[in-house]
Amino acid sequence: MPEKSSVAFLGLGHMGGPMALNLVRAGYRVAGFDVVPEALQTARAQGIPVAGSALDAVDGADVVLTMFPSGRHVLDAYLGGPHGPGLLAAAPPGTMFLDCSTINVDEAREAARLAIEAGHRSVDAPVSGGVVGAEAGTLTFMAGGEAADFEAVLPLLEVMGKRVVHCGGHGAGQAAKICNNLILGVSMIAVSEAFVLGEELGLTHQALFDVASAASGQCWALTTNCPVPGPVPTSPANRDYRPGFAAALMAKDLSLAVNALDSTGVAGEMGALAARIYDRFAAEGGAGRDFSAIITDIRDSSSRQAHGQHDGGDPPGERAGTQLPARSRTTTAHDDGSPE
Asked: Among residues 4, 162, 177, 252, which one is catalytic?
């Protein structure tokens, strides 16, 4: 690809907008588009050139970068439909299709197959680092694709991120992303349960943090995104759980992990349970809060359980809300991006 390639940037939401702006500032020729008028207005106000449609943006582009909510959105955009041709048909031959959405691994592989069959190139490169990382240009990219294609998009990814890892063939970037966030979701629940238990046992938050952060309980969910205010001043808990990485996105990413567990036959019981916990939390009002706010749900459930022991409510050991729906295959959520 030519240096300072022209980029059609499709999806200018909370993550995509700052990413596109960093490319503009680095001298890339960007044509952005989003189906949400407010996102287009914000992008235009920030100095991102916007096109009249996705197809207009793609016309003449060297790279088509997509940042969409789900795999269905990616595949539908690639293929088009009754209302017009898709991106694959509209793009010049040999265009690089770079998908930075977080989607199912099999959808990423299908998107790559379709792009290659249409005479294009393809790399999947989901991101980690959240809105703060997108704005600062410090995202982590987990890339999947052929080595030569990865090298071609590397300069572009390095503008938007501080760390870029080639994880393997098509779909490998998505695989790395969902495995990482499975660890993160499970560990945040465990850390939150430990703090609530510590409260009941008379431990201060600082005492538990001082011990666990320097012992075998040390993890990112504790030392960087601590779910209680105080020990880590920069954590979302100190600003009423304003994300950060929203619980709705954690629920989405864990649902993708469950899909992968089911398709591979891996007996991932903790991942499946974490997915159901976050899905319920998001559905019951926590969607827009940081995923570390799951600690508030644990406190509330604990309180209901304690009262149930006296007023005929839930029996001891049966926390309200743990009887959750069976695994379901889903890919829908809002904008993308998650902590490193």
From this structure: 177
